[in-house]
Amino acid sequence: MSESKLPGALLPGALGLDPFRPRLPWLNGDLQTLRDTLRPVALPPEAGEPITISVGGGDQLLALLDPPLGGAQPLALVLLMHGLGGSSCRSGLRRMGLTLQHAGFAVLRLNMRGAGPGRELARGTYAASCNSDLLPALARARELAAGRPLLGMGISLGGTKLLNALLTAPGLLDGLVTISSPLDLAACSAQIERPRNRIYKRWLLQRLVAQTLADPFGVSEAERAALAGLGPVGPMNSILAFDAAITAPRWGYGSVEHYYQEASPLLQLQARAADPRMSSGSPRLALLPPTLVLHAIDDPWVPVAAARQLAELQLPGVEVLLTAGGGHNGFHARCDRRSNGPGNWGDRLTARWFERLLAQ
Question: How far, in Å, CA of 250 to CA of 234, rounded?
């Protein structure tokens, strides 16, 4: 399926980019996904300004603020969100931030509850929908934007969190880009359970369990038993089991099925798009700010079907770009060799889409 066959699809040429073509030797979805791990990009030392954000109950989130490179005034502030098991320190997130800084944007890299260098500041862990944490962070980011546009960029689950926040409180962002983001959590959970993904699953699960056990405020005996495979959900051998034992109850959901239902942006958007006010005979309401959703058809972690369903809704201001290759948050392209700086094709696409948005 080519990009041009999607309803209202964005074509890379409109942003001055070549179509995505995988870079040798990263020719399939798995190699694209693993490229940053197998061949890390050289990055400068960490230089972000620490910003703490109160989220209630004595807990805080840690963000790192990076100014545009070259000393220019920022075009806008981009809130940059990591994915599952990630943090502000992950190389892919930092590379994206540097690309945006090169393009003239200030960047705020947010660590969600329990992640990375912010682990000591808050009890517990985050979820795909964690608005009680993310809404205060968005409000603080708006203050830091100082009258300039506030944009959002979410990698993987980071995009899911931002979409859920915007569906709860519209108007918090002036534009959004998501890359490889789960839109249907149940389908994503089933995908990671496929036998071909057992190494990915093991890696993710180990990170999630370690992140939970590292809580400086302690872990309950029931949670500790569940993590050891001795709780009601049985062996801790799947992301579904982790979400059932830890994520869903911590965030007030009655079951993991309830959590997946309520925290899946596609399901919310489909329900709202069916509202009579969204019918073809009435002016269509914008459910989201201007949004770009980028997803690779060969993503081994997150099924592409939900992104296709989102495209079929033809929501005002929402562009969906599907590429044949790219893996999960890979998008390492042949044309990367001709670019300045460390950014890859997906990073440059994000920067140029934001530039076009501001120009409009």
Answer: 18
By three-state DSSP, how is residue 131 classified?
Answer: helix
Per-residue pLDDT of the chain (360 residues; tens, 9 = 90+): 345 445 556 667 788 899 999 999 999 999 999 999 999 888 999 999 999 999 999 999 999 999 999 888 999 999 999 999 899 999 999 999 999 999 999 999 999 999 999 999 999 999 999 999 999 999 999 999 999 999 999 999 999 999 999 999 999 999 999 999 999 999 999 999 999 999 999 999 999 999 999 999 999 999 999 999 998 988 999 999 999 999 999 999 999 999 999 999 999 999 998 877 665 555 566 889 999 999 999 999 999 999 999 999 999 999 999 999 999 999 999 999 887 777 999 999 999 999 999 998
The model scores a pTM over 0.85: yes
Residues contacting residue 131 through CB under 8 Å, at least 6 positions apart: 164, 165, 168, 169
Q: Which amino acid is at 300?
A: P
DSSP 293: E
Cα–Cα distance measured from residue 141 to residue 229, given in angstroms and rounded to the nearest whole number: 39
Q: Does domain 3-184+264-359 have CATH number 3.40.50.300?
A: no
Domain residue limits, the chain = 3-184+264-359, 187-258
Reading the block at residue 224, the tokens are 């500790």
Residue 25, preceding bond cis, omega within 30 degrees? Answer: yes
Q: Is 25 in contact with 18 (CB distance < 8 Å)?
A: no
Structure tokens at 221: 């005996």
